[in-house]
Amino acid sequence: MRYVAAIDQGTTSSRCIIFDANGRIVAVDQREHRQIFPQPGWVEHDPEEIWVNVREVVGGALDRAGLTRADVEAVGITNQRETTVVWDRLTGRPLHNAIVWQDTRTDAFLRDLGDPDQFRPQTGLPLATYFAGPKLRWLLDNVPGLRERATSGDVLFGTIDSWLIWNLTGGPKGGRHLTDVTNASRTLLMNLSTLDWDDAIVASLGIPREMLPEIRPSVEVYGEARGELAGVPVAAALGDQQAALFGQACFSPGEAKCTYGTGSFLLLNTGTRPVVSAHGMLTTVGYQIGTAPAVYALEGSIAVTGSLVQWLRDNLGLISSADEIEALAASVPDNGGCYLVPAFAGLFAPHWRADARGVLAGLTGYITKAHIARAALEATAWQTREVVDAMNADSGVDLTQLRVDGGMTANGLLMQFLSDVLDVPVVRPEVAETTSLGAAYGAGLAVGYWPDLATLRAQWTESARWEPFMAGEIRERELAQWRKAVQRTLNWTP
Questions:
Q1: Alpha-carbon span 270 to 145, nearest angstrom
Q2: Which residues lie below 8 Å from residue 338, measured CB to CB, with a gap of 6+?
Q3: Cis peptide before 274, with omega less than 30 degrees from 0?
Q4: What average pLDDT does the segment 326-349 reach?
Q5: Which residue from 383, 369, 352 is spatially nearest to 263, judged by alpha carbons?
Q6: Is the pTM of this model over 0.90?
Q7: CA distances from 83 to 11, 69, 94, 139, 417 (A)
């Protein structure tokens, strides 16, 4: 038998998952990496630590499966998207820590640029600290000598997919400097119509064109791997949320999924024409298979969901492990009147308010840590509700079902509350690791391991379903209270 491997490089860890021809998991290996917080609002990762971990998890997954690289047909990559890396072309050494998608250090620079929607017609994105282009500009302005070296061609830029592809395919000894259309669409530098760098925007942000990677389709053989996967085709790259859309088999316009991880991200397939949002959604590339037209999506991005549970564990000590939160939250019948809005990095969709900061509102002497735990889970559902409302307004079609994936979907209490506040069924697939599965599907398609999308769609099977039963008047009352709490987060920073 032959298999396909997926490298899933996420915000808190790197994993390698090996899949069989039925899209079933054969083996998994995972390593966490450090979260570096140099200043309030700043978040960094060590790119070399990530690369070491990726190599270790690839070897670990092969060992767990009892396989060698000769058993692997292809490898696909999925990654945290907007996280920004710069490195030396000749040595392969990073020239600064990676600046993570959650980082807010570019806020002042973006405010100085003026109209937050000035690049939206070309890129589908507002000016926000979320995206990679402004992070790159910060590095060029603040790392001594970087701009001069970048202009001379000695420095390479990329999101994490580029960093991994370059290293996998040889690094300083012939590594390919590439990115795919999904990751490029998260830089604020790519034109959605041409699927190439927008020269006017690149120039206006003061970024040397020489350091940008070549933009390629999501599903394509980029080159052969070296090292642990020597000779295996590197055959797909998709940003993590687009990979989950692909892994959930949302191949038709109108199909949507939401991934619940560190943050949460709802994507709606809109077909081969980009839809411009008027309600705070992002227009992004969903995927591109070879020379076929790109497929676009509307996205609602929520910065803090799973990481809020980590915060309760690591910063407040309310729980000792993340899986304890469901039982703690379920020990009380409701939130006791308290609401937790986790605007730790500002508010993302649909608000896009970098001035917001987290608020715990409605506290009384009655509130216990169980109520706070419940409010934390409910915050994920209410933030999803805000995104769904905005997406319904943009698309003109109400969501009738939500496919979900990611680690938080193991929490039945949260999934039921999510169904209740959305008032639609919530469905989890048999293979919940759809981000990795999407990368594997892409790589397998590129090399003919799977013949077509219809084959992949046929492999999607339902594992669990939650139906809404909350009374409408309760839903509307709680939504109004949530909105009041959100208002309290605004205008917190200058």
A1: 43
A2: 360, 361, 362, 363, 364, 367, 371, 372, 375
A3: no
A4: 93
A5: 383
A6: no
A7: 9, 29, 13, 12, 31
